[in-house]
Specification:
The protein has no helices and eleven strands. The strands form two sheets. Strands 2, 4, 5, 6, 9, 10 and 11 form a seven-stranded mixed β-sheet that branches. A four-stranded antiparallel β-sheet has the order 1-3-8-7, with no helix packed on it. 33% of the residues are buried.
């Protein structure tokens, strides 16, 4: 499974971005997909996840601002990020679990920079 993330960039505080991550390659089924982020000097943290059935979970820091969604037919997960804050600046990674053993795959990361 290869995960390709798109949509990062530089935006002013209060602005918005939409990230997308598509899974490709040979696989049986994609289960939970999600977004994580890692700011300089900090550990990678969960942003939001979504199951194949559409159930979502998100970090308290992004609730009400970020929305995760997915298109199962396209094996793609999205992250709509509104009301961005400088503290949202990080490299954002997508993750997907695949197959009967729920093997985890990571995308290459996309940089999000929010200026104040």
């Amino acid at each position: 499974v290869q995960l390709q993330a798109f949509g990062g960039g530089l935006v002013q505080a209060g602005g918005y971005l939409r990230l997308s991550c598509a899974a490709s390659g040979s696989f049986f089924s994609i289960h939970t997909m999600g977004w994580y982020r890692q700011a300089p000097g900090k550990q990678r943290e969960l942003v939001a996840t979504i199951t194949s059935g559409g159930s979502t979970n998100s970090a308290d820091s992004v609730k009400g601002r970020f929305t995760i969604s997915r298109d199962n037919a396209k094996n793609t997960v999205y992250l709509q990020m509104n009301s961005l804050k400088p503290e949202d600046t990080a490299v954002y990674y997508c993750k997907a679990h695949e197959g009967s053993n729920w093997h985890a795959y990571w995308g290459q990361g996309t940089q999000v920079t929010v200026s104040s």
